[in-house]
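Reopening this ticket.

The earlier resolution said the output was attached, but the attachment link was broken on my side. Pasting everything inline this time so it's all in one place.
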Amino acid sequence: MEQSLGEPEREVVESRVLMGCTGRRLGVKLGVCASLRAPECLSRPAAPQTQRDVGCGLLCCQSVAVLQLDCRPVKNSAMASAPELKIGQKVSEGKTKQIFELVDQPGLVLVQSRDQITAGNAVRKDQMEGKAAIANKTTSCVFKLLQESGIKTAFVKQHSDTAFVATHCEMIPIEWVCRRVATGSFLKRNPGVKEGYRFSPLKMEMFFKDDANNDPQWSEEQLLEAKFCLAGLTIGQCEVDIMNRSTVAIFEILEKAWATQNCTLVDMKIEFGVNVKTQEVVLADVIDKIHGGYGLLEIEASKKTSRCTET
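Inline output:
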């Protein structure tokens, strides 16, 4: 049985991210990676550090694991003796991953990463050998950290170098963006804001997933009026509150972890889904692009390249 991060006997969780080291800056470069790990001393506190009412339930944010970033050559780390799964039909296929049903495990799916990288809503595509394994390990590490902090996610366990098992969800077609620092596309939409402006409280944005129209920005009212019905659940005010407040909690968990390494979490983009068996709203999709170093750090969930800049 898989051990949790809170158990002292557990293995160290690593997430390898393609990066090259040039002085104080880390940039994308095949052949060198940064390792993201939870330390051996990680333990669960007696009581939650903070609690946030999330509308229909209570989200408990426990103490955050300290993440250690270091540079080392990429090693071949094929997972030994991954159990056989009976793979069923393809449920869906995205720009960088495929999702398959599991015949002998109803309610679960296999999320298979691909060695494909995209930009500009998949207008530009390319292949990068080894990217799938790195993306999968990164996603597994981050989701485990979030689960240890009380966040409900679709992640179940890592299955192989390039795939993980998750609960089957119908995805809510909204990208939730949370920002601490003004940069990138936000500056284009808000030309009066200077780059580097620090948001306190966090700046929240949402975008409707529509590649043909470049993912237009939506308001909360538009989301409510859309009345999306997924897995038998109609997305209403309660569900929107859960996603909104969970996004802030997720950002703060990762921000605290990144701060231990003298890194600033600039912004993040995540997606939620509805569990087809329980009708519960959970963090889903993947979080597989993390670029970091001493300075500004940006993390995004699978859609566009993030960047690290020197302070």
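Reporter confirms the inline version is readable. The longest strand covers residues 198-208. Confidence is low (pLDDT under 50) at residues 1-78, 290-311.
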